[in-house]
Amino acid sequence: MLKLNPSTLLTLMLLIVCTTFGYSAEKFTADALDKTAEEVTSAQITLCVDLTCLPSATAPSVFGGFNGWCANCNFLSDPDGDGIWCTTVTMNAGSQEFKFFVQEGEETFCPGTPGTVTSGPFTNRVIEVVCDVDQTLTFGYNSATAVCNPNPPGEEVTMCVDVSCLPDEVTSVSIFGAFNGWNTGANPLSDPDGDGIWCGTIYLCPGIHEFKFFVNGVEESFPAGADGDFSNGCTITCCGGAFTNRFVNIAAGTNPTFVYGYNSCDGNCVPPAGAYTEFCFNSNCFPGDVNDVALAGTFNGWCGGCNPLTDPDGDGLYCATIFFPPGIHEFKFVVNGNFENFPPGADGDYSNGCTITCCGGAFTNRFVEVIDGVEQTIVFAWESCDSELLEISCPPETDLGFFDCTTIDDIPACPTTLDEALGAPWNIVIINSGCGDLAVLCEDSDAVDICGTSKIIERTITIVDGGITATCVYTMTILGDNAPVIACPLDKTISLGPGSCGALSTEPLPTIYDLCGATITRTEPSTDVFSSIDCNLGESNAVTYAYEAVDDCGNVTVCSYQVTLASYDTNLTGISCNDHVNVTANASCEVEFNADMLLEGGPYGCYDCFGVSAVEIHTETALAVFEVTITDPATGNSCWGTVTVEDKNDPTVECADCTDPDVTDPACIFNCTEEKLFTTFVEEEGRFGFDTRLLDGLIPSDGEDFIGDYVTDNCDDVPMSAGYSDTFSPIGNCSEGTL
């Protein structure tokens, strides 16, 4: 008799359902049990899900045993846009477990939900597939019906974590665990009031759930306990200490709220042990284009795209900062999707300080040792234990000195080649040449010129290796050409000498102080000014002297001051005059009386300020005689004397030139009337003398003037005598009309 165990019976039932081998139920024999799995047929199952209740649904898919639980293998589509997403998959006959998946998270179900099956911590949808029987099935997301459910089944649980103790600004917090497939991005928390306590709502089925909080890309860390031990009421360890997570026991119908402290089993925030490490990849020497860079390692399950590195400043250094607990962590750089490769060493040997090999040479990775509280930055080039970063040394003395307009040309020129940068006065030393193709840049923080105020200029010399740069900064002090300084005199009063009443200004140009070629000019008065004493004031009106100094940079300085002339200051109270003085009439036969003519003794102030009065006295021996009185305006005292006016200017004779023997000018020839009149006054042959007024009266006005001779004198109305002589020769008989 054939004996069948329960599993054989199941197989037998399956073969009876999928009868494709030509056997009838009545004729079924044990030979059918030898049929292989390849002979078991499948069916085309169209699976649809209603996503209309979800706020967002990115890249919906279905995954399950039929595709190895691959969430990225069978995507759904919604061509008519009704919110029902579908795809057709091939499933083998029998019970098939599956779930729908969106990037925001997978479906979740509590054990016992209709249409699901629970195995350990997993509760999945299940359907029965009949071979060669195609089906179209529609479900609601997170629902046992065809209606979409926006909230997963279970209790509404509010989970909070206090992160206020963390030293860095907290920018992202989430909760992850078995309930969401340990997806760190599926359930973010928020802190709307900024008190450092971040909260979020999740749905958990009644029972025990493991989870952790994930802050700024770093998950919580707890010490391992005994596997499966829940006794501390906070954490549970599994897998020989490999994983230690929080746990929470949810009771049905409670909708609880929990508040935890980060890394703590109570409400107190505990900073995590460890330190931040900045990882940088130097791409400048990479053989080819760099499109993307990431960091993979034990910390992220060797995920080649989970921790990208960025180069925001474009210098070729791709960096990311990650928090690690204390200890040794293995990692590699991933460039353009390719992991680094290193030659293997001895297993477990860290001695080269760069890589470690394990598993008989199967894996050789970089490593970093993290010490609690010690931050660090590590930089490496591709598949190298060297950073290949440019490194230079600057000289100990970087002050180039002081420069003014006399030494500005001594400032050393910027280096343009590497040799110049390595030489004096820059003296840069290359310690690590990086990729080796170096260039030199030079830039000043300000224009190197004298014009303007004094300033300190920084000259930055940059050595460039691809996108990597290293700099040395030098300083130089420029003594600017400030505006010229004028030694501007103060306003001043100049005392005149005794009797003086004015003077011509002769102020010298003030002294200027400037290093760079300033010149000074007088802007007013435009010409020299003669200043006279105002007798009412005892001084002259003030004259303003203004100057302008301009240097080569166009800097302008102005200066002005005033000059006043003061009359001579005398202490005399009395005045004294000469008894008598003689004076000569001027060219106009005039005399101007002033105090200086008569005053004696002194010294006196401005003569022009004394009062002068004159009374004429009759005389027959001179032009005129006056009694002149001088009065001191300050005291009213006066003195007097007589002044005789004389004419000591000789008459002026202007003779016409008739010395030419061939003269024919009628003005030089007597007519008969003139001859007769003239010869009446002949004193001796060939010579004559006469009184001008007498001659003018004798010669008719209509006759031609005798040989054009004239006599003038300053005092014509005063008796005077003058004479002159000419030579003449007879040239014919007067009876003939001419002589």
List keywords for this structure.
739 residues; 6-stranded antiparallel sheet; 5-stranded antiparallel sheet; 5 helices; 49 strands; disordered N terminus
Notes on the structure:
The chain is mainly β and 739 residues long. The chain is 5% helix and 38% strand. The strands form 15 sheets. Strands 18, 19, 21, 22, 23 and 24 form a six-stranded antiparallel beta sheet that branches. Strands 2, 4, 5, 6 and 7 form a five-stranded antiparallel beta sheet that branches. Strands 10, 12, 13, 14 and 15 form a five-stranded antiparallel beta sheet that branches. The protein is elongated and about 175 Å long. The model is unreliable at 1-38, 680-709 and 718-725 (pLDDT under 50).
Describe the structure concisely for a colleague.
With 739 residues, the chain is mainly beta. 5% of the residues lie in helices and 38% in strands. The chain is elongated, with a radius of gyration of 63 Å.
What structural class results from the helix and strand content? mainly beta
Total beta strands: 49
Mind summarizing the main beta sheet? Answer: 6 strands, antiparallel
Q: How big a fraction of the residues is strand?
A: 35-45%
pLDDT averaged over residues: 83
